[in-house]
Write a structure and sequence with these properties.
This protein is of the alpha/beta class and 583 residues long. It contains 20 helices and 14 strands. It has a five-stranded parallel beta sheet with strand order 6-5-4-10-11, with helices on both faces. A three-stranded antiparallel beta sheet has the order 1-3-2. α4 packs across α17. 42% of the residues are buried. It binds one RNA strand of 77 nucleotides through α6, α13, α14, β14 and α16.
RNA sequence: GCGCCCGUAGCUCAGUUGGAUAGAGCGCCGGGCUUCGAACCCGUAGGUCGCAGGUUCGAGUCCUGCCGGGCGCACCA
């Protein structure tokens, strides 16, 4: 972490002043810029920003209160710092508000959409694999969480200065695919998604569910599915053709779901392609002695000295297992792209699998194996428990989006906002999908989510629509006259707690991007945006902007609105939620 | 049984990487639109941070042990 990362941070001069005071007071002490962390004191009466001296006390082996006192004498008021005072071990700063406000607003208005960009990544390549659907069923709420996290993380890392590559890995082969194929062969009667007027992934998914129902009573069906899989592996023409036809139906369905969610990929990997490379690599590793053939004939690797178990890498009949394909895919990723790090966004239930995978790759001699990271997010549960595709017990992604679209539409019409026709549909879509995304993103990715359809997604409080509403509200003020202000602002007139609080929060945006990107915690951005929106709404409620009674004050407040608009817009874009001008 | 994750207000969640008096939203009760968007704002009530120890100036946060919930531990992907 080098200083250049923070170049864009408006609080830079405060941090620099503290560092210089430390260097003057304690020469030779190795204290670094990035160790300086600013707090916000519990009460504004105590100061605008604070620095605690406990860390220093540890290094110097002295009383933190004494250090704080000592430092306070070394820091003189600057154009920026009004007053320094101590409160025990805390060194508190009062800023010259008009300078602070004018600095931060000017900074944001100058930076525009690049405000918040930091240099954490320094242009380094990073890959994010997300979504990874199976081609035997439509996507459900769990996939939506995955897609939403994957997109947001990609955007945030991009903002943090990484070169991000988004990829998908489609699980298009295996016994589960054979099951829907068998069901279609037996009961499909030549129907197609077109003939039934159904989305392709739903059409295929119905046969998968049908198979599971029938297979309960007729075990022969499972055998048929297994035989079909072997035929597929042997390249049987009819089987491969049917496989291709049904997968294409599914892809057409997925395209529609991805379009609505806004999923974009630089490349899509198919396991039907990558498993072959995986096999080659395992055979090579066998020759090199990294793994061995056990008494049954399976190729096995022994990971017990790494605290793991033995793991089969290839079946005795030469067919691949799950990990074989992932070995191939991961090697292919590092061959295809110039990346330093590879992130796998996959549900946390697969934690062990990835631990094994990364260890195997490490043993095989790939130095980049230590740069693979599994971002395992928590499960999504329904009130009745875990979602189960094979029983059809899921919250379907497409239905959910339709439902929220409709709810949003009702809300708009209730407010009678002169929004009609195509525009109404477009805005309802943005709000509905924004609500879903925000609902999933505001929770820490590691935590499980319990989804209650009746109460989970609302349009009030800590929600996507609340943030979007604030954005639309500011946009409206701009339309109503904000954009036509020519007067130059006088920031010394902006002295209220609401104006100061909002400005302080806007100044935190680059810090939030940093924290979110370095910990892969997308919920930080979501919660920060809520705080910004809340601070804006409070400010808006308490103070008049266009009718402030003083043109220079109006100009200042309009600029504060513009700066807030930029932060909200950039923040929403990071989350993959569309900022709206009207709603 | 073994391994990993999670326990914070009635419910859903934050908690700036160990810092000042633990915060929001929803819900309940009450208040605020002839004035820039009320999908908004304000107030009241609500807590043994699962329990018990430990580490230190300081623990919701770190270590240990319990309790409760989840997820893994296949030639399924």
């Amino acid at each position: 972490m080098k200083k250049e990362i923070w170049k864009d941070n408006p609080l830079d001069s405060l941090k620099t002043a503290i560092l210089e005071a430390i260097k003057t007071a304690y020469p030779g002490l190795g204290y670094e810029y990035e160790e300086i962390n600013l707090d916000i004191p519990p009460d504004p009466k105590m100061g605008d920003f604070g620095f605690s001296c406990f860390e220093l006390a540890k290094k110097i082996r002295d009383n933190p209160a004494k250090i704080s006192n000592n430092l306070s004498e070394k820091i003189k008021p600057t154009k920026f710092i009004d007053k320094v005072c101590t409160s025990g071990p805390f060194l508190n700063f009062f800023l010259k508000n008009e300078i602070f406000i004018s600095d931060i607003i000017n900074h944001i208005l100058f930076q525009k959409e690049s405000y918040g960009r930091i240099n954490l990544g320094n242009g380094k390549g990073i890959m994010i694999e997300y979504s990874a659907p199976n081609t035997n069923k439509p996507q459900h709420l769990g996939h939506v969480r995955n897609n939403t996290i994957g997109m947001a993380l990609s955007n945030i890392l991009e903002k943090a200065g990484f070169r991000v590559y988004r990829v998908n890995l489609v699980n298009d082969r295996g016994i589960h695919i054979s099951k829907s194929m068998i069901a279609y062969k037996l009961w499909g009667n030549g129907k197609t998604p077109e003939s039934e007027g159904k989305k392709g992934d739903h059409f295929v998914g119905d046969y998968y569910v049908l198979f599971e129902q029938k297979a309960k009573k007729d075990p022969v069906l499972l055998k048929e599915a297994q035989e079909l899989l072997i035929k597929w592996e042997n390249g049987d023409k009819d089987v491969v053709n049917l496989w291709r036809k049904m997968n294409n139906w599914v892809y057409e369905g997925f395209d529609e779901t991805y379009r609505r969610l806004g999923c974009k990929f630089d490349k899509i990997y198919y396991e039907s392609d990558t498993y072959k490379l995986g096999k080659d690599i395992v055979f090579k590793a066998l020759k090199e002695g990294h793994c061995y053939k056990d008494s049954k004939g399976d190729i096995v690797i022994d990971l017990r000295d790494r605290g793991l178990e033995k793991k089969v890498l290839l079946r005795k009949d030469g067919t691949s297992v799950y990990i074989t394909q992932d070995i191939g895919t991961t090697v292919m990723k590092f061959n295809d792209f110039n990346i330093e790090r590879s992130i796998f966004v996959v549900a946390s239930e697969q934690k062990y699998h990835f631990k094994v995978l990364f260890n195997v790759l490490d043993i095989f001699g790939y130095e980049w194996a230590k740069n693979c990271f599994h971002l395992g997010y928590g499960m999504v549960y329904l009130p009745e428990g875990k979602m189960k595709s094979r029983e059809g017990k899921v919250v379907d992604a497409d239905n959910l989006m339709d439902e929220l679209h409709q709810l949003a539409k009702n809300e708009i019409m209730k407010r009678n906002r002169n929004i009609h026709g195509e525009e109404l549909e477009k805005i309802a879509e943005s709000i509905g999908i924004g609500a879903i995304k925000y609902f999933l993103l505001k929770v820490h990715p590691l935590k499980d989510i319990f989804f209650n359809p009746e109460e989970s997604i609302s349009f009030e409080g800590t929600t996507g629509p609340y943030v979007q509403y604030t954005h639309a509200r500011i946009s409206s003020v701009m339309r109503m006259g904000g954009n036509k202000i020519n007067e130059s602002p006088d920031y010394s007139l902006m002295t209220t707690p609401e104006e100061i609080q909002l400005s302080k929060l806007l100044a935190k945006f680059p810090d939030i991007v940093f924290e979110s990107a370095s910990s892969y915690n997308i919920s930080r951005v979501a919660n920060y945006l809520f705080n910004v929106a809340k601070a804006f709404n409070k400010f808006y409620h308490d103070h008049s902007i266009l009718n402030a009674g003083n043109k220079k004050l109006t100009a200042g407040r309009v600029n504060l609105c513009k700066a807030s608009l930029i932060v909200l817009k950039e923040g929403l874009k990071l989350l993959g939620i569309e900022p709206l001008e009207k709603m």
